[in-house]
Amino acid sequence: MAKRGGNGQNELGLTKDEYRGAPSTLCKGCGHQSIANQVISVVYEMDVLPEKIMKFSGIGCSSKSPAYFLSRSFTFNGLHGRMPSLATGAVFADHTLKAMGFSGDGDTASIGMGQFKHIMRRNVPLLYIVENNGVYGLTKGQFSATADQGLELKKQGLNPYMPVDIVREALASNATFVARAFSGDVKQLREILKAALSHEGIAIIDIISPCVSFNNQDDALHSYSWGRDHEVAIHDLAYVPPREEIEVDYDKEVMKKVTMHDGSKIVLQKIGEEHDISKRVDAVNLLDRADEEGILLTGLFYIDTEQPSLIDIKGITEEPLNRLTNDRIRPSREDLQDVNEMLF
Amino acid sequence: MTASDTALAEQENREQVVNDFSITIGTVNGSGSQTSNLTIIRSIFKMGIPVSGKNIYPSNIQGMPTWYTIRVSKDGYLARVPEPDIVVAMCPESFQEDVDRLPPGGLLIYDQGIRAEVEREDIFSYPLPVQKLVRASDAPRNLQDYVANMVYVGALVALLELEIDKVHQALDFHFSGREKPVDLNYKIIQSTAEWCSENLEKVDPYHLERMEATKNLKLVSGNEAAAIGAAFGGVQFMGWYPITPATGLADMLKVYLPKLRKDPETGKNTFAVVQAEDELAAIGMAVGAGWGGLRAMTSTSGPGLSLMTEFAGLAYYSETPLVIWDVQRVGPSTGLPTRTSQGDVIMAHYLGHGDTQNILLLPGSPYECFKFGWRSFDIAERLQTPVYVLSDLDLGVNQWITEEFEYPEVEMDRGKVIWEDDLEAFEGDWGRYLDVDGDGIPYRTVPGNKHPESAWFARGTGHDEYARYSEDPEDFLKNMERLRKKYETARSLMPEPVLDEMESAEVGILAYGSTDPAVQEARDHLRDRGIPTDSLRLRAIPFTSVVHEFIKAHRQIYVVEMNRDGQVHKLLSLEVPEETGKMVSVAKVDGLPLTAEWIVDQIESMEEK
Q1: Domain that holds residue B331
Q2: Of A90, B216, B397, B607, which has fewest CB within 10 angstroms of its CB?
């Protein structure tokens, strides 16, 4: 990405440093840190003012991470498993802002499963990232609901249960943007993040993000080495910002293009199998085959740009609600007189 | 006519009873009787007679017995009375029970399809051929069961002289002027009234007579009043989940907000109402909206409030304004979902783990539901904290007489919210939790503020004055002390209690909320029995100095409330420990609104000791 302002400044004249946060307290090598770094790069590269972003999170390692990036963005680090409801109310305050939610596999797939499901149903305009490592890090490594069946950890023993799959849950709940990424594959992650930020609705990204302290054995699904050896991208995905020409040199026959509401485009280049990102059932079939083959499938599984977002559904004013002056939210004396007369 | 000799004999010596009796109507739940009952109370109201109605209903959609009690009082006493003077028995299952409740000389109007004759000979009774009257009407078959309940309205027209044009007016209001249902119901009422005049001889003493006591007044439920209040308070976000008896509040917001709160310039909504998946999410959304700078609210009842606890604590500690309506029902647990209580006071006041003290507003009438409906937002935003408005089922669901709502007399107070220009004035030293003014209330920014120093990190974890994560003991102490100071500041913003004095009273009654009609009636009776009392009706917690003075000024204080443990009595004992000895708890909850009789009995027996 060209640095248009020069001196490492983006179009807004801001340097990347102005998108950073407090020093991280995550473990060295934590997958979440790599995600944090990509979020910084992406928002900086997309020329979004940090004040135009809101961040939300629940409780856990992933939910602590919003402190470590975009410190100029308003942030609410709330309750365990309740990030979705907090964000749902907050997006009404100023719908011109971009909302990003950061959650983990415990926060989303266990205590927060209910709110996770319902925020998708309402198509709340929120980029919802699940930093998925299969374990509860802050409480020293218990299995989470996404941990693989048969996973063996030194202190926990063997996990006898079948896993919850975030992508399948998202597909089943009518999420309008469903992707999976691997925090060890930053190039793809960046493109997916950009595409998701341009989506006007709920965008779920399940990011496999290894826990170096408790779940990084070479044979574990959520580890770096397994991910590197087994990741297979469904397609080569490129994000093209609004007003920019598609410069990617792809064979037009196998190239697909999705135009987002803000004018940006997602360009998808087929790699292996054919996948129609407008069909949920195709995505589920792909996932089943990936399980059989023992691979980590990444990329954009499903997108629907037509569904109205919750903000559209509620028909609120163009002007942010939290900027409306008092006279626009208190009806008049005459209105009260009418109400009094209407009463029996 | 089955009125007995005994009753008739008594009747000769008895004066006519005009505008001073109570009616209990027993019907089958879900049979449409609510329309008939509302029509009766509204008609009486329009006759200018003080009236109240209490819906004593089961937690059931259809089939169980349900009761509606109406009190008519020329003196304006509108509390519930324990037993009826008149019974309308339309429910097979509760028939005998309802008949047995009548005192000698009482009046029974009943469906002869349920029982051909009643055994009691000490009451007046009129059988109604309900089925025959309905069949004779031109009501379509599928609606006959519903309009059947209009038969007893017709009987009251003939027997009690309920004015039929007022009945029409009430039907017209109920069906929003839709001619078809109005006519359908009106015709049955009319034909029943005619049948009664031709076939029944009026021998009982009960009469309604036009008065002028309800002029310029309105009949409305607390939930509706609260919704109107919230609309005029500028509510911008409502997150809620269905629960008896709070659902009506959300329903009414959905009626009033589209009427009142479309932006005149664009026609777009200046509000959003979202039905959440549960109470956790309902309050979560409201907290998010409140943090975002919107006037946010949720409404619930006890079980829902239990679920809201974790977000309530977060809102308190992160200092996020929002308004929480608790339309109380009977607990513990699921309790009696369709019955009334004041059982959530202590819970709401301390809701949240750790040291938490919440602001409570205690409306005592629909008028105050309206007023606190808007004022609660001013208080919440000024104090940056959740404000709990504790209504109850009786106040929320039933129709109460009220004065017309008055336009808010003060400008909206949005509290210490600062925008881009304001931040400049801080010259780089703004901290989200810095106590600049010494009142414990810091300045806050909200999302959308474009100033590069506007953003802050809201959290439920320990924080310093700049909203940074902190485990430092000094930071923690300082913050919690400031929150305590803020609570002290809150006292000056609370609505003052309502004082009513009697000459030479040594005894004081402290009460709050929907018990007011019973308390005021009890005071008149107590005075007549030589115990004059002063009363102070609390309207908020924290208590103000007026409460301290009232307690100090009286020999004995009775704290009347509708719960088992005397919850406000307990809070007052903590507030004024030196006066604990003179404060006596007069508390009871059985699901029904308190009666004046019970309050009189309690206080009288204790005064005699």
Answers
A1: 220-403
A2: B216
